[in-house]
Specification:
alpha/beta; Rossmann fold; 5 strands
Length: 123
Amino acid sequence: MRLLIVDDSNMIRSRISRVVQAGGLSNISLVGLARNGAEAVRIARSTQPEVVTMDLTMPEMDGVECIGQLLRILPKVNILVVSALSDKSTAIQALKLGARGFVAKPFSDDELKMALLDVMETR
């Protein structure tokens, strides 16, 4: 499974990629890192990820808008929202749009792994 990580925080992007690569998720290969939704859409067009971790609050294009665009390009993509829970309504909106799961920041490595496995099983 090809994974695209979308987050405006370099620290979070690095942490998610480390968890994926060190966490025994051997069936996932990292195909891209994006700092915002616009970058994510560009990368997704060329890499065709099957799984995307998506932050909601980002510059240029936020996660909610990006989810809509990604699902138009890749209707079967599994999106896991990884975001602070300060704005529950935005998270609910993301799930209504088609995101398959949600992990609140800050998260533990195990929480992230379990959530990734969950969204991958929904295929």
